[in-house]
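Project outcomes to date are best conveyed with an example. Our students and postdoctoral researchers have been running inverse folding experiments weekly, and each run begins with a structure described purely in C-alpha coordinates. The record below, which covers 212 residues, was selected by the lab manager from last quarter's runs and is presented without edits.
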Protein backbone atom coordinates (compact mmCIF):
# COMPACT_ATOMS: atom_id res chain seq x y z
CA UNK A 1 0.00 0.00 0.00
CA UNK A 2 1.30 3.44 -0.90
CA UNK A 3 2.00 5.82 1.96
CA UNK A 4 0.75 9.42 2.07
CA UNK A 5 4.24 10.59 1.15
CA UNK A 6 4.37 8.29 -1.87
CA UNK A 7 1.03 9.44 -3.31
CA UNK A 8 1.63 13.14 -2.64
CA UNK A 9 2.99 15.02 -5.66
CA UNK A 10 6.63 15.92 -5.12
CA UNK A 11 6.03 19.64 -5.70
CA UNK A 12 3.52 19.75 -2.84
CA UNK A 13 5.75 18.05 -0.25
CA UNK A 14 7.94 21.05 0.70
CA UNK A 15 4.83 23.20 1.26
CA UNK A 16 3.12 20.52 3.35
CA UNK A 17 6.29 19.92 5.33
CA UNK A 18 6.58 23.64 6.05
CA UNK A 19 2.95 23.83 7.17
CA UNK A 20 3.47 20.87 9.50
CA UNK A 21 6.63 22.46 10.87
CA UNK A 22 4.79 25.74 11.51
CA UNK A 23 2.05 23.90 13.42
CA UNK A 24 4.59 22.00 15.49
CA UNK A 25 6.49 25.21 16.28
CA UNK A 26 3.28 26.95 17.36
CA UNK A 27 2.30 24.07 19.65
CA UNK A 28 5.78 23.72 21.12
CA UNK A 29 6.13 27.44 21.81
CA UNK A 30 2.63 27.78 23.22
CA UNK A 31 2.31 24.67 25.34
CA UNK A 32 4.47 25.88 28.23
CA UNK A 33 2.59 29.19 28.41
CA UNK A 34 -0.72 27.34 28.26
CA UNK A 35 0.25 25.02 31.09
CA UNK A 36 1.54 27.93 33.17
CA UNK A 37 -1.88 29.59 32.85
CA UNK A 38 -3.77 26.36 33.53
CA UNK A 39 -1.69 25.63 36.61
CA UNK A 40 -2.53 29.10 37.94
CA UNK A 41 -6.22 28.51 37.24
CA UNK A 42 -6.20 25.03 38.82
CA UNK A 43 -3.96 25.20 41.95
CA UNK A 44 -4.40 21.47 42.66
CA UNK A 45 -2.66 20.53 39.40
CA UNK A 46 0.15 18.83 41.36
CA UNK A 47 -2.32 16.16 42.47
CA UNK A 48 -2.96 15.30 38.82
CA UNK A 49 0.66 14.58 37.83
CA UNK A 50 2.88 12.25 39.82
CA UNK A 51 6.17 13.59 38.53
CA UNK A 52 7.84 15.74 35.86
CA UNK A 53 7.88 12.88 33.35
CA UNK A 54 4.11 12.49 33.55
CA UNK A 55 3.66 16.26 33.21
CA UNK A 56 5.82 16.26 30.07
CA UNK A 57 3.77 13.40 28.60
CA UNK A 58 0.57 15.36 29.17
CA UNK A 59 2.14 18.43 27.57
CA UNK A 60 3.05 16.36 24.52
CA UNK A 61 -0.51 15.01 24.39
CA UNK A 62 -1.89 18.55 24.55
CA UNK A 63 0.40 19.68 21.72
CA UNK A 64 -0.66 16.75 19.53
CA UNK A 65 -4.34 17.25 20.35
CA UNK A 66 -4.19 20.95 19.52
CA UNK A 67 -2.66 20.24 16.12
CA UNK A 68 -5.22 17.50 15.34
CA UNK A 69 -8.11 19.79 16.31
CA UNK A 70 -6.87 22.79 14.35
CA UNK A 71 -5.98 24.95 17.36
CA UNK A 72 -3.36 27.03 15.57
CA UNK A 73 -3.83 30.62 16.73
CA UNK A 74 -3.30 32.66 19.87
CA UNK A 75 -6.92 33.84 19.68
CA UNK A 76 -8.15 30.24 19.94
CA UNK A 77 -5.86 29.57 22.90
CA UNK A 78 -7.06 32.73 24.65
CA UNK A 79 -10.63 31.62 24.09
CA UNK A 80 -9.85 28.26 25.73
CA UNK A 81 -8.11 29.85 28.69
CA UNK A 82 -10.98 32.29 29.15
CA UNK A 83 -13.42 29.38 29.26
CA UNK A 84 -11.16 27.60 31.78
CA UNK A 85 -11.33 30.62 34.11
CA UNK A 86 -15.13 30.48 34.05
CA UNK A 87 -15.33 26.83 35.12
CA UNK A 88 -16.55 25.99 38.62
CA UNK A 89 -14.79 22.62 38.61
CA UNK A 90 -11.34 22.30 40.24
CA UNK A 91 -10.30 19.38 38.00
CA UNK A 92 -7.53 19.93 35.48
CA UNK A 93 -9.06 19.69 31.97
CA UNK A 94 -8.30 16.88 29.56
CA UNK A 95 -6.82 17.68 26.17
CA UNK A 96 -10.19 17.08 24.49
CA UNK A 97 -12.00 19.39 26.88
CA UNK A 98 -9.44 22.16 26.46
CA UNK A 99 -9.55 21.88 22.66
CA UNK A 100 -13.35 22.14 22.73
CA UNK A 101 -13.01 25.32 24.82
CA UNK A 102 -10.56 26.73 22.27
CA UNK A 103 -12.97 26.08 19.42
CA UNK A 104 -15.51 28.38 21.03
CA UNK A 105 -19.27 28.30 21.11
CA UNK A 106 -20.96 26.19 18.42
CA UNK A 107 -22.63 28.36 15.77
CA UNK A 108 -26.07 26.91 16.44
CA UNK A 109 -25.97 28.02 20.09
CA UNK A 110 -25.30 31.64 19.13
CA UNK A 111 -28.09 31.46 16.56
CA UNK A 112 -30.44 29.95 19.16
CA UNK A 113 -29.72 32.75 21.65
CA UNK A 114 -30.30 35.40 18.99
CA UNK A 115 -33.69 33.88 18.19
CA UNK A 116 -34.77 33.83 21.85
CA UNK A 117 -33.66 37.46 22.27
CA UNK A 118 -35.30 38.54 18.99
CA UNK A 119 -31.98 39.62 17.48
CA UNK A 120 -31.89 39.63 13.64
CA UNK A 121 -30.58 36.45 12.00
CA UNK A 122 -27.01 36.60 10.68
CA UNK A 123 -27.39 34.11 7.82
CA UNK A 124 -29.98 32.56 5.55
CA UNK A 125 -29.50 29.19 7.28
CA UNK A 126 -30.25 30.81 10.62
CA UNK A 127 -33.34 32.50 9.17
CA UNK A 128 -34.69 29.23 7.77
CA UNK A 129 -33.99 27.38 11.03
CA UNK A 130 -36.06 29.99 12.85
CA UNK A 131 -38.92 29.66 10.39
CA UNK A 132 -38.92 25.88 10.82
CA UNK A 133 -38.79 25.80 14.62
CA UNK A 134 -39.81 29.09 16.27
CA UNK A 135 -43.51 28.28 16.79
CA UNK A 136 -42.86 24.88 18.37
CA UNK A 137 -40.02 26.24 20.50
CA UNK A 138 -42.10 29.10 21.88
CA UNK A 139 -45.33 27.15 22.41
CA UNK A 140 -44.87 23.48 23.21
CA UNK A 141 -41.27 22.27 23.66
CA UNK A 142 -39.21 22.00 26.83
CA UNK A 143 -35.81 23.75 26.92
CA UNK A 144 -33.77 20.59 26.05
CA UNK A 145 -36.22 19.64 23.29
CA UNK A 146 -36.14 23.18 21.89
CA UNK A 147 -32.33 23.22 21.73
CA UNK A 148 -32.23 19.81 20.07
CA UNK A 149 -34.86 20.75 17.47
CA UNK A 150 -33.16 24.05 16.61
CA UNK A 151 -29.70 22.44 16.45
CA UNK A 152 -30.89 19.82 13.94
CA UNK A 153 -32.67 22.42 11.81
CA UNK A 154 -29.75 24.86 11.88
CA UNK A 155 -27.16 22.22 10.94
CA UNK A 156 -29.42 20.97 8.14
CA UNK A 157 -29.84 24.43 6.57
CA UNK A 158 -26.21 25.34 7.22
CA UNK A 159 -25.14 22.28 5.23
CA UNK A 160 -27.45 23.26 2.36
CA UNK A 161 -26.13 26.82 2.44
CA UNK A 162 -22.51 25.65 2.32
CA UNK A 163 -23.36 23.56 -0.76
CA UNK A 164 -25.02 26.53 -2.46
CA UNK A 165 -28.43 24.83 -2.33
CA UNK A 166 -30.14 27.41 -0.11
CA UNK A 167 -31.53 30.56 -1.72
CA UNK A 168 -33.71 33.40 -0.54
CA UNK A 169 -37.39 33.02 -1.36
CA UNK A 170 -38.82 35.53 -3.84
CA UNK A 171 -41.00 38.04 -2.01
CA UNK A 172 -43.87 40.10 -3.36
CA UNK A 173 -43.30 43.87 -3.44
CA UNK A 174 -44.78 45.81 -0.50
CA UNK A 175 -47.11 47.65 -2.94
CA UNK A 176 -49.02 45.73 -5.61
CA UNK A 177 -49.27 47.15 -9.13
CA UNK A 178 -52.11 46.60 -11.63
CA UNK A 179 -50.90 46.43 -15.22
CA UNK A 180 -52.86 46.90 -18.44
CA UNK A 181 -52.69 43.13 -18.97
CA UNK A 182 -54.35 42.62 -15.58
CA UNK A 183 -57.14 45.00 -16.54
CA UNK A 184 -57.74 43.26 -19.89
CA UNK A 185 -57.72 39.82 -18.31
CA UNK A 186 -60.21 40.84 -15.63
CA UNK A 187 -62.51 42.46 -18.18
CA UNK A 188 -63.07 39.17 -20.06
CA UNK A 189 -66.19 37.27 -19.08
CA UNK A 190 -66.19 33.50 -19.54
CA UNK A 191 -69.57 31.82 -20.11
CA UNK A 192 -70.43 28.16 -19.33
CA UNK A 193 -71.72 27.61 -22.89
CA UNK A 194 -68.20 28.15 -24.21
CA UNK A 195 -67.20 24.77 -22.80
CA UNK A 196 -68.42 21.20 -23.02
CA UNK A 197 -71.50 20.64 -20.90
CA UNK A 198 -70.81 19.52 -17.31
CA UNK A 199 -67.06 19.78 -17.79
CA UNK A 200 -64.84 21.18 -15.05
CA UNK A 201 -64.35 24.42 -17.00
CA UNK A 202 -68.11 24.81 -17.53
CA UNK A 203 -68.80 24.36 -13.82
CA UNK A 204 -66.11 26.90 -12.89
CA UNK A 205 -67.52 29.38 -15.42
CA UNK A 206 -71.01 28.81 -14.00
CA UNK A 207 -69.78 29.78 -10.52
CA UNK A 208 -68.40 32.97 -12.01
CA UNK A 209 -71.79 33.82 -13.51
CA UNK A 210 -73.40 33.46 -10.09
CA UNK A 211 -71.02 36.10 -8.68
CA UNK A 212 -71.73 38.70 -11.36
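After processing, the design step wrote out the following sequence:
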Amino acid sequence: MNTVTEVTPYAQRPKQAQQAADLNDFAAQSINRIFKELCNIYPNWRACFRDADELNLVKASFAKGMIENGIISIAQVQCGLGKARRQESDFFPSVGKFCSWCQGEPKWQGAFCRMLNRIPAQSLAEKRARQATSWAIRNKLSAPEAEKKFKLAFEKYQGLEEQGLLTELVQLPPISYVTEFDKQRNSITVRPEQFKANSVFARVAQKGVHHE
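The chain is about 65% helix and 0% strand. The first helix runs from residue 4 to 7. The training component of this project remains on track.
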